[in-house]
Specification:
Elements: H1 3-55, H2 65-68, H3 71-84, E1 92-97, E2 102-106, H4 112-117, E3 120-124, E4 135-140, H5 143-149, H6 152-213, H7 215-218, H8 221-251, E5 261-264, H9 265-275, H10 277-282, E6 286-291, E7 297-300, H11 302-318, E8 325-332, E9 336-342, H12 350-353, H13 377-387, E10 391-397, E11 401-409
Parallel strand pairs: 6-8
Antiparallel strand pairs: 1-2, 1-4, 3-4, 5-7, 8-9, 9-11, 10-11
Helix pairs in contact: 1-3, 1-6, 6-8, 8-13, 9-11, 11-13
The structure holds adenosine-5'-diphosphate (ADP).
The site of adenosine-5'-diphosphate (ADP) has 20 residues, from α11 and α13.
Amino acid sequence: MKRWFRTLVISIFALAALSLVVIQFVQTRRTFSISDNMFNVSVNNAMDEVVRQMSGEVFQTASHPATSFNYQELDSLIAEELLLNGIDLHPVVGIYDGSQGSFLYSSDASKENRLEESPYRYNFSPIGVVSSGQYFITLAFPDTELFLQSNTKVYLYMTLFLLVVIATMFFISLRTLAAQRRLDQMKTEFINNMTHEIKTPISTIGLACEMLRDETVSQDAATRSNFLGIISDENQRMRVLVETILQSAKMANKNFAINPKEVDINSLTAKVLQSFRLTIANRGGSIEAHLDASPSTLEADELHITNMVYNLIDNAIKYSVDAPRIVVTTLCDNENIVLSVKDHGIGIAKENQKRVFEKFYRVSTGNVHNVKGFGIGLNYVAQVVRLHHGHISLESELGQGSTFTVKLPLLG
Ligand code: ADP
């Protein structure tokens, strides 16, 4: 997807989502006000009936509302009438005496101030009371209850739910788009790096072959052996590179299985070290080997273990700015063969140490180094270790160097 098109899609989507939020907001407010009006109409209907009954049949024996009213009956009559009008609430009820300016009765004395402010005030004239317009029934609904009562609660929840769904979908879409962009970038980087990594050994091998064709060079045994060594090392380098990429893709398959046989870790490591001899020498570095594992054989996949050791040593050399100084050790603890590769290179910051085993992850090092790579090597190493039921750990300090330690169980 083109960049401008992606920006357009995101903008339209954001605008549509925002419009929807505004529309929903306006609509919700309108629904609230309609619902408020309906609530008032229902209360008024209910209270018309209450007033009618109080003024007529039910309280006809009353001579004075303050003394003769059965207030409990009044409360339940109001609740009953409210319910009949669809309001399942028990408001605070008061009888207000207009001539005295005070309440003769209130169902909850502590809420009298609310009764005073309440708009729900209904005049009634019980039989036997001379002056009409003197007594009022007053109702006070607690705000929260009023709110809960309204049918808009469901509407509000639905609206909120939909808004959350839209926001989540928007967020997921943005993340997917960002991930896709990252993947695109990674793909481009991968192809660039791959081209570079493969081109270098090809041209080195080409150059060495040219030299060997020259009779004056090929007749000298030492020089010839040196060039053959270069060809062999570069060939090995390309083999591991291609193998790492191919096997790493294969390992993503759940059914992937290793092909174990008896492997001597000491001689395998020595062989891998041999292939780095020239590279190390060319960079004026040194490799120290302490291959002391005993017993040194374990059931493992030779190809993958070789590639694993190769990747670890290759990284140790790649990420050493000056002449590489590398120490490779094998030993046995109780149940494992322990292989460690220690370098004095650029090291890895604490926050990046966990991530280096992720596929395609590369520490962004700014100008510190310009080492080419794919970010697959350590992921592949970790997969090989996992398939052998082993464990890999990393100790590193920025600027000081790194030690990768692999433990492989002796009993497969
Ligand atoms: P790459 O192809 O980039 O070397 P890896 O998966 O082998 O991929 O390594 C992932 C990242 O971990 C590297 O890009 C590098 O930043 C860091 N890294 C790996 N090994 C070392 C090391 N020995 N010293 C410092 N950094 C390392």
